[in-house]
Amino acid sequence: MKAIAYSAYGTPASLKVVDVPQPKVGPGEVLVRVKAAGVNPVDWKLAAGYLDPILEVRHPVIPGWDVAGVVEAVGPDTFDFAVGDEVYGYVRKEWVELGTYAELVAAPVRTLARKPRALTFEQAAGLPLAGLTAYQSLTRVGVRAGESVLIHSAAGGTGSFGVQIAVALGLRVIGTAGAHNHDYLRSLGAEPVLYGEGLADRVRELAPEGVDAGLDFFGDGVIETLQSLVRRRDRVVSIADYEAAAKGAHQLWVRPDTADLTFLAELADAGKLAVNVEHALPLAEAAKAWELSAAGRTRGKIVLTV
Question: What angle do CA 81, 87, 89 make, to 5 degrees?
Answer without folding.
Answer: 110
